[in-house]
Each structure stands twice: as structure tokens, then as C-alpha cells.
Amino acid sequence: MYKPLKTRLIVLAAVLSCTVAGVAAAADVKPRLIRFGYGLNDESVQGRAARYLAQELEKISGGKLKMKTFGSANLGSDEQMQGALAGGAQEMMVGSTAPLAGMVKEFGVFDLPFLFNSEKEADAVLDGQLGQDLLKKLEAKGLVGLVYWENGFRNMTNSKRPIVRAEDMQGIKLRVMQNQIALGVFNTLGANAVPMPFSELFTALETRTVDGQENPITTIQSSKFYEVQPYLTITRHVYTPWVVLASKKWWDKLSPDEQRLVRQAAEASRDFERKDSRADSLKAMGTLEQAGMKINTVSPEEVARMREKVQPVVDKYTQELGPDLIQQLNTEISKARN
Ligand code: TF8
Question: Whose CA is nearest to atom 11 of ligand 1?
């Protein structure tokens, strides 16, 4: 049967558009409410990215997937939320990799000091093979790791004195994240390391339960640590990522379409957050200076001495985490570096 080409094209277009519309209509997305918890306040990098994620997800799901965000550890500390996700009592969260090392020890690689030189190197490792393999290991623990956000390069603040040489850390009661490697690193540097959840940190600094802490300058600013910590020392001793997590119990109940939308929104939030974090980091320095913090930068020679001092801790955890993993890590870093 002969039909003119034009008619055939119209029929073809009609069939195609029906198929496209059919797929969209058939997309299996139910109305859902997702509770997303995080530890910093609403004005932080974390808060802004959480709101972005919620808006993005609502937009691409046509309003069906609604996310309610809870900042300032209102749903619990990072550790508590990890437990709630694993048990299925909460849907999603973002938190540091450091406390995750209690569940999957290999996340401890990001607590090894002086690993990355730049954000670019960190992005390459996190979004590359090693970072993605680590996320997969979470599934056996009841968590689904979606994307990495930037927490950032950490620096030290305290209420005693500027840290010019490693020796200046002697006797400083320093809050660290709840992680064996962080504990080992700071005790070896001479500090008196105290593991503590972030949610208790401001009060601990204010009441002088601890003398100092270490975090990226974005957090030192948004959490107003400058109100209780006169000294800031730029050390960039470690780069901490944040991970956006979902409860596996909950995730497994989502349709493939719903999972795809959550992943897509998470990826968009990652790109937004990293850009925002880097821009905020440039501004934060000036704000902290204006707030009256006394800021110094540790010299490269002194960083080299610190590195040397903590080498035994690095060697110990290289054995514990697996020399192969550390080798893969170093290979991926040097690839990104060159
Ligand atoms: C820390 C981390 C915190 C995050 C946050 C509470 O010092 O750097 O920024 O884990 O989710 O605990």
C-alpha cells in the first residue's frame, strides 16, 4: 500500500510522540515525603545544598517527591542518623565520611592527613573508581551512598595560641571527629584529642570543655566558632568529603523511576554544592578576619615536619585499611595531579 512520504512521516511522528508521552505517563512515581537530615545550620553550605536538593527533586518529579530538610542535627548527630537510615527510621541524610568509617573501615582513607593538594584531586578520586567502590560497600550496612559533597580542607582553631610549629599543639584539648585515625593523628601531633559529635561542639568550645577543633573555614564561619575561638591556623591537614546517603530499606521500596529521579537530583546538588562551597570558602576568610580572629598559615617547612611526625600513624593505617587500597588511592591522586 502506497502512502505519500509526508503522510508516512506524520504517522511516524505521531507514533513517536505517543511513545514518549506513554513513557512519561507510565513513569512509576508515587507521592512521597522524604526526611533529609544534616548537622550544620540552615545558613551553612550544607543547608543551602539541602534546600537546593529538595527543590530540584520536587521540580523533576512534578511535585510528587517532596523533601523536608532538618538542619542543626535536629534528627540527630551524623552517627545517630546513619543508624536511623540503616534501621529504616529516616530516609536520607548528608554527613562526613569520618564517622562512616565505623561501618565501612575503608572510608578511613579520607582521614589520612595531607593526602590531597587540591579540590580537583579530591573530586577525581571521589567521583572515580575508588570513591564509587567505597559507596557500594555501604549497601551491606543498610545504606545507599549517592554522591559526595564537599566538606573541605580542614584547619585548626583554638583558644590558647596560634599554631606556628607542631609543638604549639602540645596539651591542647582538641575535639576531633569520631574516628580512630583522626584520634591517632592529633594525639601524635601532641594534642589531647577528644572525639565528640559535631552537635556538641559549640557548647564544648564555649564552656572550655575543649580548647580547640578543626574544620573547613566555611564551617568555622557558619557555625560562628569565631565567637569562642580567637586563633585560626591554616593547616589544610585533611580534606573531608560529605556523603549523601539513603536508607537501603527505604530505597529498595522505590520504583526504578523514583530511584532515577533521586539520583538525578543528588547529582545536581553535588555540582551546586561544590561550586557554592568553593565560592563561600573564598569569602569566609575575610569574614573571619573581620570578626577578629587571629589568622596564621603554617609554613611549608612546618607542614613537612608535621607530615613526618604523623608518618607512623599513616603507616599503621595503611596496613589496617589495606596496602592495595592505599596504592590505588595514591595512583588515582597522582593521575589527577599530573
Ligand atoms: C565535623 C564535620 C561536620 C559534619 C556535619 C555535621 O567536624 O566536619 O561538618 O559532619 O555533617 O564533625
Answer: 95
